[in-house]
From TrEMBL:
GO terms for cellular component: cytoplasm. One of its GO terms (molecular function) is iron ion binding. This is NIF system FeS cluster assembly NifU N-terminal domain-containing protein. Residues 33-157 form the NIF system FeS cluster assembly NifU N-terminal domain. Transmembrane segments: none annotated. NCBIfam families: iscU. InterPro entries: ISCU (IPR011339), NIF_FeS_clus_asmbl_NifU_N (IPR002871). One of its GO terms (biological process) is iron-sulfur cluster assembly. It comes from the Eukaryota.
Length: 163
């Protein structure tokens, strides 16, 4: 792992049980718990935001993990051809949960619904090199994708029943 310095505020968000004092910075090389991809997605999350949940082309999935308190909202916008043209997320949780959400939205944007439905938490965990204690974060991302797809499908079924 590269010897990278990040500020202690970011680090305490990633590692809430640790306290760091040394000129406000710590060398990342000293901490092997998180892969640099997790830190990158945490510090530079992609696709943060919300879509209009009332839009029939938007599916919304909200999931949570009672054990750790993480809550994840993931939304997809689907065009008439079944392509996911946009994806947004808002996550309240640890760095691994935020990174899992961010990565998931990157993976599903531009893809079809079937592709998105096949994304598994193991793929997310592997890509981010999540430690075993953080696998539930990748599971939240998988569950959020599935919930967003389900919400979108329900909206389409309701729309078709009206016509």
């Amino acid at each position: 792992m590269q010897n990278k310095i990040i500020n202690s505020f970011s680090l305490t968000r990633l590692f809430p049980t640790l306290v760091f004092h040394r000129h406000g910075n710590i060398q990342l090389q000293q901490i092997a718990a998180y892969h640099e991809k997790v830190i990158d997605h945490y510090e530079n999350p992609r696709n943060v935001g919300s879509l209009d949940k009332n839009d029939p082309s938007v599916g919304t999935g909200i999931v949570g993990a009672p054990a750790c308190g993480d809550v994840m909202k993931l939304q997809i916008m689907v065009d008439g051809n079944g392509q996911i043209i946009d994806a947004k997320f808002k996550t309240f949780g640890c760095g691994s949960a935020i990174a899992s959400s961010s990565l998931a939205t990157e993976w599903i944007k531009g893809q079809n619904l079937e592709y998105a439905s096949k994304i598994k938490n193991q793929q997310i965990a592997k890509e981010l090199s999540l430690p075993p204690v953080k696998l539930h974060c990748s599971m939240l991302a998988q569950d959020a994708i599935q919930a967003a797809l389900s919400d979108y499908q329900k909206k389409q079924e309701a729309r078709n029943e009206k016509t």
